Recover the amino acids of this structure.
C-alpha cells in the first residue's frame, strides 16, 4: 500500500491514562476499564530498535492516544530526545490532558521543544470549575501548574477545546489566557453525542460529529458519565453532559443506572450487514496515504498497523480484521531479527490491505469494512 518511505507516524505510546473521559474507548463511559486495555507502553529502547536510519526520514509524529495519554509513558522525554537526535527538523505534535506527571517533567519537555518544530496540544475542556466534568479525574491545580511550567519555557502550544453546554461560559477567559501567553485557541465540536430520529419507525443512533444539519425531527442524547462501584465489574451513572446550543426539549437524558463489563459489546462491525458491498464500486481514500503522506500507526504493544482505526477494531475483536491480521500478528513487532522494513514488506501491507481498499478480499464482503467506514470518499 505504501509507494515510498514512511514519513508520518501516529503513536499510541501507552494505553495508560490518568483521566476517565466518558467518550474514550478505554472504559465504560468513564467507569470500569474494558478488557482490551492492557497497560502497555513503549520504551525508548523500542524506538532505538526501529533504528536511526528509519527514524531520520520521519517528517511528522502524531503522539495522540486512542486509549491512553502520552504523558503517562515513563520514557516519553527520552523518546522525544531520541527522535530529535535522529531528525532535528522533524515535527512532533503531542495531545495531552496535561494532568499527568509534574512541573519538572513539563519544563524539561518545553526546554526540549523550544525552537523546534514541536508543540503540545492541550486537550482541556474548561476552566477550574468545569474541565473535570468531561476530563474526569484530571486535577485542575496540577494541570494548570504543568501547563504553566511548559509555557514559561517559550515552547509552542495550542489549546484545543471541546464545547459543551456546561463550559460555553469559559470561552472568554480561556481566549484571554491564550492571548496573554501567545497560545493558539481551537474550538471544536465533541464526539460522543448521539442523534435519535423522533419518528418511532426509526430508532437508529448515529454519531453526531456536527450538529449543523439538525432539524426538529432529531433529538440529541446526552453523554453519560459513569463511576466505578468498586467490584471490578459494574459502573453506576454519576451525571450526564449536555450538548451546547440544543433546546432542552430536543435533549434525551435517559441512561441505564448500572452497567457491567460482563455485558461489554465490542465496537465492531456486524459483517452480515456489509455483504452488499461485494462486487460494488467503493472509493476508499485512505487517510494514511492522503496527499504526500505515507503513514503508519505504532501501537503501545509495539505492533505496526496502517492506522488507529484498524488497530482499534483489531484489539476490540473485529472478526474481519482479525482474519486479515492474524496470520501476520507475530511479525508485526520490530525485533532484533525482524526489522521495521521486514514488517512493512509483509503481504499484509503489500496485498491484503490494498485488496481490502479496492474490494478484492477473498471473503463475502470484498472490502475492508473499517476502511470503507472511515475512509470512503463521497
Amino acid at each position: 500500500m505504501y509507494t515510498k518511505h514512511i514519513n508520518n507516524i501516529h503513536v499510541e505510546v501507552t494505553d495508560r491514562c490518568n483521566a476517565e473521559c466518558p467518550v474514550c474507548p478505554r472504559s465504560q463511559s468513564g467507569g470500569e476499564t474494558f478488557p482490551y486495555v492492557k497497560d502497555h507502553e513503549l520504551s525508548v529502547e523500542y524506538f532505538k530498535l526501529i533504528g536511526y536510519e528509519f527514524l531520520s526520514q520521519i517528517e511528522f509524529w502524531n503522539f495522540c492516544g486512542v486509549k491512553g495519554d502520552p504523558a503517562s509513558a515513563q520514557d516519553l522525554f527520552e523518546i522525544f530526545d531520541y527522535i530529535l537526535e535522529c531528525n532535528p527538523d522533524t515535527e512532533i505534535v503531542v495531545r495531552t490532558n496535561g494532568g499527568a506527571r509534574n512541573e519538572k517533567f513539563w519544563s524539561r519537555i518545553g526546554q526540549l521543544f523550544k525552537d523546534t518544530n514541536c508543540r503540545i496540544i492541550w486537550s482541556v475542556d474548561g476552566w477550574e470549575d468545569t474541565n473535570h466534568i468531561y476530563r474526569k479525574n484530571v486535577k485542575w491545580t496540577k494541570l494548570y501548574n504543568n501547563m504553566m511550567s511548559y509555557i514559561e519555557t517559550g515552547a509552542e502550544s495550542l489549546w484545543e477545546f471541546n464545547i459543551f453546554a456546561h463550559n460555553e461560559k469559559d470561552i472568554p477567559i480561556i481566549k484571554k489566557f491564550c492571548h496573554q501567553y501567545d497560545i493558539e485557541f481551537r474550538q471544536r465540536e465533541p464526539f460522543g453525542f448521539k442523534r435519535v430520529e423522533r419518528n418511532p419507525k426509526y430508532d437508529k443512533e448515529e454519531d453526531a460529529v456536527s450538529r449543523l444539519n439538525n432539524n426538529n425531527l432529531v433529538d440529541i442524547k446526552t453523554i453519560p458519565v459513569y463511576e466505578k462501584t468498586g467490584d471490578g465489574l459494574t459502573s453506576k451513572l454519576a451525571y450526564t453532559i449536555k450538548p451546547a446550543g440544543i433546546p432542552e426539549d430536543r435533549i434525551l437524558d435517559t441512561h441505564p443506572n448500572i452497567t457491567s463489563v460482563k455485558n461489554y459489546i465490542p465496537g465492531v462491525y456486524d459483517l452480515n450487514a456489509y455483504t452488499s458491498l461485494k462486487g460494488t464500486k467503493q472509493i476508499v481514500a485512505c487517510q494514511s496515504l492522503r496527499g504526500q503522506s505515507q503513514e503508519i500507526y505504532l501501537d503501545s504493544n509495539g505492533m505496526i498497523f496502517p492506522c488507529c482505526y484498524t488497530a482499534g477494531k483489531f484489539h476490540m475483536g473485529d472478526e474481519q480484521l482479525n482474519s486479515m491480521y492474524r496470520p501476520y500478528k507475530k511479525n508485526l513487532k520490530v525485533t532484533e531479527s525482524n526489522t521495521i522494513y521486514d514488517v512493512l514488506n509483509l503481504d499484509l501491507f503489500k496485498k491484503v490491505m490494498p485488496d481490502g481498499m479496492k474490494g478484492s478480499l477473498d471473503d463475502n464482503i470484498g472490502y475492508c469494512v473499517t476502511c470503507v467506514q472511515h475512509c470512503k470518499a463521497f
